[in-house]
Each structure stands twice: as C-alpha cells, then as structure tokens.
C-alpha cells in the first residue's frame, strides 16, 4: 500500500504534491502495520484472485487486509459494501 500511495501521490494530484508533502504523507502512514509480500501472501492472493475475480493488485491489497485482520478496507477500487472473507469494503467517496 505504501508503494501504491507513493505512486499515486507523485502523479495524480493537480497541482502536483511537493516532495516534502509526499514525504510527510508517507511518514504519517509508516506508523501503521506493514504487511510484507512474501511467498505465502502471493500464493494465498492467487487463490483469492481465482475465487473473487479480482485484479492482481486489488487482490494483494485484499489479502494483506485479511492477514492483518482488518474488518474494514477503505478503497475506491472495490465495489462499496463488497465483502471479502472477513473484510467489508467501504468506498470513502460514496456519499
């Protein structure tokens, strides 16, 4: 997620965020649990992708959420209200 956050923060906002703002954003998120992408996560994510018909990067996020025992996953990339085993997706942009 930190990789994706950095990627989006450095190319999407208009006007672009400064390097200092991106650094502050990443540092603010660094205090949260970071789930490493190891072989078990990849294998489990592959099976989840097959079952749930998710894109590869979305399924990696979902699998990491499941490994962390997150009850809620905030994302605009999943359908609002979708349930993935043990995780409910909330789109923060839905009014």
Give an overview of the whole structure.
This protein is mainly alpha-helical and 95 residues long. The chain has a domain at 1-32. Helix content is 49%, strand content 9%. The chain is built from four helices and three strands; from the N terminus they run H-H-H-H-E-E-E. The chain has helices spanning 2-11, 19-29, 39-52, 56-67, and strands spanning 72-74, 83-84, 87-90. Strands 1-3-2 form a three-stranded mixed β-sheet, with helices on one face. Helix 1 runs antiparallel to helix 2 and helix 3 (39-52) packs across helix 4. The two termini are 24 Å apart. The mean pLDDT is 88.
Offer a few descriptive terms.
95 residues, three-stranded mixed sheet, mainly alpha
SSE topology:
Elements: H1 2-11, H2 19-29, H3 39-52, H4 56-67, E1 72-74, E2 83-84, E3 87-90
Parallel strand pairs: 1-3
Antiparallel strand pairs: 2-3
Shape: globular
Number of helices: 4
Oligomer: single chain
- Extended strand count: 3
> What is the mean predicted local confidence, pLDDT?
88
Helix content: 40-55%
How far the N terminus sits from the C terminus, by CA atoms, comes to: 24 Å
Query: How do the strands line up in the largest sheet?
Result: 1-3-2
Integer-rounded radius of gyration: 14 Å
As residue ranges, the low-confidence spans are none
The biggest sheet amounts to: 3 strands, mixed
Estimated share of beta-strand residues: 5-15%
**Structural class based on helices, strands and sheet pairing:** mainly alpha
Element order: H for helix, E for strand: HHHHEEE
């Amino acid at each position: 997620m930190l990789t994706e956050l950095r990627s989006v923060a450095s190319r999407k906002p208009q006007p672009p965020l400064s390097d200092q703002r991106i650094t502050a954003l990443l540092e603010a998120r660094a205090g949260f649990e970071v789930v490493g992408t190891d072989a078990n996560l990849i294998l489990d994510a592959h099976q989840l992708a097959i079952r749930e018909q998710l894109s590869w990067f979305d399924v990696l996020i979902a699998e990491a959420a499941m490994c962390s025992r997150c009850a809620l996953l905030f994302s605009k990339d999943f359908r609002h209200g979708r349930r993935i085993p043990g995780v409910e997706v909330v789109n923060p942009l839905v009014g």
